[in-house]
Amino acid sequence: MKLFRTFTLLAVAALAWACSPRQDAGKPGADASVIRFATDWRAQAEQGGFYQALATGEYEKRGLKVQIIQGGPGVNVPQLLAAGAVEAGMGSNSFIALNLAAEGVPVRAVAAMMQKDPQVLIAHPDQGIERIEDLKGHPILLSDASVTAFWVWLKSKYGFEDSQIRKYTFNAAPFLADKSVAQQGYLTSEPFTIEKTVGLKPRVFLLADNGYPSYAAMIFVPQSLIDKDPARVRAFVEASAAGWKSYLTGDPKPGDALILKDNPEMSQDLLDQAREKMRQYNLVEGGDATTGGIGVMTDGRWKTFAEMAIAQGVYPKGLDYTKAYTLDFVRPAGK
């Protein structure tokens, strides 16, 4: 499972970056206040802070004109960033940032709105599975993206084996049909949907609470924008952090209204429970954010993550993982 075999799309992104006309901050005539922000999936509570910042004017008061570009199955955020089609994008896990660094694509993570990745494994409640390690040997439904992401950590820490992998198509039917099977999911989504739909309260294991060191809901920005207009990047990070604070501790209705407008398939009860789960499990304000503020990242956390992935052979030993991120925008200016 080598990097260059599993992440070939990033080579395309690198080529697109090198060859395509870019619309970055340095382009003559470009509006220096615009930020087109591409999310990694359809509008949902896991993006709520960004929508809240837009709805409550946090971006506008900092002189920014922000457009949220909704993600989905056909949206590749790294490619959009590499080609200069957007000024910022959302990254769901730390592997994405390291993939970009390994391919030499000049895009960096500048903030992590979630200190804990919401990724979970879900099991049936009556199978004697009390700890995440009890899933060793059980079939686990995983998407292709997950096999090259958190599965790497599960194999490293718990000795899980590739023979356990079953194809996950984002349909819970195979899980419900076989009690021995576990599946991937998001803390804020699938457990609620399964319980609401069939009345089954599953066993849920949050990978982050078992040591998984990935960040989530990261903000990715091209190096060109960082170099040419760091004030715009800082303003976007600060406004986004304010939006997340408001969404989780204030009145979330403005953000929810925009989410429901962008994604009519979303429901208010799903948004409400997801927000409560984010608060209950301290996804945003826990960890280093308790002292460093929303969005904070650390060199130590990135080092731990990179060393785990390199040890599993995902990346070459000489990878300069520090090119995946910068801490310049998650600490006071000038420090």
Task: Identify the notable features of this structure and list them briefly.
5-stranded mixed beta sheet, 15 helices, about 15% strand
> How many β strands by DSSP?
10
Beginning-to-end CA distance, first to last residue: 39 Å
Strand arrangement in the largest pleated sheet: 2-1-3-10-4
Question: Class by helix and strand content?
Answer: alpha/beta
Overall mean pLDDT stands at 91
Radius of gyration: 19 Å
Q: Largest sheet, if any?
A: 5 strands, mixed
Counted by DSSP, the helix tally is 15
Question: How are the SSEs ordered, and which strands pair?
Answer:
Layout: H1 3-6, H2 9-19, E1 34-38, H3 48-55, E2 65-69, H4 77-82, E3 88-91, H5 94-102, E4 107-114, E5 119-123, E6 140-142, H6 144-147, H7 150-158, E7 165-167, H8 173-177, E8 182-186, H9 190-198, E9 203-206, E10 216-222, H10 223-228, H11 230-249, H12 253-262, H13 268-280, H14 289-292, H15 299-311
Parallel strand pairs: 1-2, 1-3, 6-7, 6-8
Antiparallel strand pairs: 3-10, 4-10, 5-8, 5-9
Helix pairs in contact: 3-11, 3-12
Quick structural gist:
By secondary structure, this protein is α/β, with parallel strands linked by helices.
Describe this structure in words.
This protein is α/β, with parallel strands linked by helices and 335 residues long. The chain contains 15 helices and 10 strands. The strands form 2 sheets. Strands 2-1-3-10-4 form a 5-stranded mixed beta sheet, with helices on both faces. A 5-stranded mixed beta sheet has the order 7-6-8-5-9. Helix 3 crosses helix 11 and helix 3 crosses helix 12. The N terminus is likely disordered.
